[in-house]
Write a structure and sequence with these properties.
- This protein is of the alpha/beta class.
- Helix content is 45%, strand content 26%.
- The chain has a six-stranded mixed beta sheet with strand order 5-6-7-3-8-9, sandwiched between helices. It has a three-stranded antiparallel beta sheet with strand order 2-1-4.
- The longest helix is centred in the C-terminal third of the chain and has 42 residues.
- The chain is globular and about 80 Å long.
- The structure holds adenosine-5'-diphosphate.
- The site of adenosine-5'-diphosphate (ADP) has 12 residues, from β1, β2 and α1.
Length: 274
């Protein structure tokens, strides 16, 4: 099988100073894995375990101190909060078009416009309605759809996702997951997701690597690792996620119950008044 990404012994230590004291943080302690073409891989772990550092090394934004991260092919990147890195002065159309302009694709203006429209339609964004808007104007879910349109417009071989749904409402997450999976299928692209969100990773990925403090804890096919985690750390991570799921389900149930009760009471009063 062809590989799209190969990481071997990737190491990264950050050096910072606090009150004149030198602090070394080993963000990555020699991480190795590879990804086959078409694979959907999730890197799962709590905050601070080194996920963003790994992505930065893969995307060439950070230089590893040791080892190598080799990406074969074009990557499309979706960040957690896309607008922290995008100019607020560009319109939605200019934002989505940007990879075609700077990627030296040779596409002329009309061609670029056609592609932007197509990418927006794939993300269920009305072209005429949104093209002239600014990033602050669409809602969180719509903003992330703009960001996905921008990531897929250059037809990447691999989609690299950094917590793409963690700032979104519970209900919008499913929609974003669906759009990302559809894009992968359409482009025959691989997908690399880093997240702390177990439920989202389960939905998106066929294989998972669980990380803790810059190291791999375990890895395996999603179904298998969920059914039979080998380490206590993974089991706890999954259990905590189930508790959160239950909390939301319970909240939904109670809110629906209260809303129905209020509606029925109001109806009853109306009936008595009549
Ligand atoms: P995650 O994405 O899983 O939350 P990160 O890769 O952001 O984790 O961080 C891994 C570790 O490296 C953390 O302990 C974090 O505090 C530290 N770290 C990340 N970036 C820097 C930096 N620029 N300088 C110093 N320490 C950093």
């Amino acid at each position: 099988m062809e590989s799209v990404l190969a990481c071997s012994e990737v190491r990264k230590t950050y050096v910072s100073y606090q009150k004149g004291k030198k602090i070394c943080t080993e963000a990555l302690k020699g991480l190795s894995f590879s990804m086959e073409k078409g694979e959907r891989l999730g890197i799962l772990g709590p905050s601070g375990c080194g996920k963003s550092t790994l992505l930065k090394c893969i995307l060439g934004l950070e230089r590893p101190d040791g080892g190598r991260a080799l990406l074969a092919g074009k990557a499309g990147f979706v960040a957690q909060d896309p607008y922290s890195s995008i100019s607020p002065r560009l319109t939605v159309e200019q934002i989505i078009e940007e990879p075609l302009v700077y990627g030296r694709t040779g596409a002329g203006r009309a061609e670029r416009r056609r592609k932007v429209r197509e990418a927006m339609e794939q993300m269920r964004l009305d072209y005429e309605k949104y093209r002239r808007r600014y990033p602050q104007q669409p809602s969180g879910g719509e903003r992330q759809r703009v960001s996905i349109a921008r990531a897929v417009i250059g037809e990447p071989e691999i989609l690299v996702l950094d917590e793409p749904a963690s700032m979104l409402d519970y209900g919008v997450k499913g929609e974003i997951a669906g759009l990302l999976l559809d894009s992968c299928r359409r482009l025959h692209a691989s997908l690399l997701l880093v997240t702390h969100d177990v439920a989202f990773a389960k939905q998106m990925c066929g294989r998972m690597i669980v990380m803790r403090e810059g190291e791999e804890v375990e890895s395996g096919q999603t179904e298998q690792i969920c059914r039979e985690p080998k380490s206590v750390f993974t089991a706890r991570l999954f259990r905590a996620a189930e508790d959160i799921e239950r909390y939301w389900e319970e909240k939904d149930r109670l809110e629906t119950g209260t809303a129905l009760k209020q509606y029925r009471n109001a109806e009853e009063k109306r009936r008595l008044r009549a």
